[in-house]
Amino acid sequence: MKFLSFKIYSFLVLSSTCYVPLRCNVQAVIRVPLNKSIPAVIFFGDSNVDTGDNNGLKTIVEANFLPYGQDFMGGKPTGRFNNGKAPPDLLVEELGIKELLSAYLDPNLQVEDLITGVNFASGRAGYDPLTSEILKVVSLSGQLEMFKEYIVKLKEIVGEDRKNEILANSLFILVIGSNDITNTYFSSITLQLNLNSCELDVCHQKEH
């Protein structure tokens, strides 16, 4: 399976106009090569692109309460870590695939959603398994395991040949890494500094 079977010179431009109090109108612009189409979009990553996978997890990292979603359709929070649509939604909408990219763990996920792509991203996830383990979210390796499960489901729905065609021509996007720096790397340094400080204090006490 190849992640991209043709050269795709598409790009995403987010242009925004913001007004006080920090309300922004965001528009996506996508260009795809002529005579090419993208049947599905698959996202992996963290809260920058999570569209609701954390809703069903036992974690404190959630976005299913206001003010999240206040500018979303119906003004209701959906698990997206922003006030409206998330980048994956803007992308699939601009590509003409569908209006929203559903979270894979959404209990209301439809068959049509699986055919046109889903989102495996989990808020506060990272490359380092420890990053996700600390806050009990879906790690990147866990997201890949869900993707394997998704492939099996997709085959059951459309058959082997169509499954291969969809996966070969789909757009796969990974947005992850910042939590490894802010939550794991710097936290580890701070912890080590605190431990070193405590060891020095113990040494000084023994000297006296």
UniProtKB/TrEMBL annotation:
Source taxonomy: Eukaryota, Viridiplantae, Streptophyta, Embryophyta, Tracheophyta
Coiled-coil boundaries: none
Top-level taxon of the source organism: Eukaryota
Name of the featured protein: GDSL esterase/lipase EXL3-like isoform X1
Pfam families named among the record's database cross-references: Lipase_GDSL
Protein's organism: Nicotiana sylvestris
GO cellular component: extracellular region
Molecular function per GO: hydrolase activity, acting on ester bonds
UniProt-listed PANTHER family: GDSL ESTERASE/LIPASE EXL3, GDSL ESTERASE_LIPASE EXL3-LIKE
Entry similarity comment: Belongs to the 'GDSL' lipolytic enzyme family.
InterPro entries for this protein: GDSL, GDSL_lipolytic_enzyme, SGNH_hydro_sf
Transmembrane intervals: none
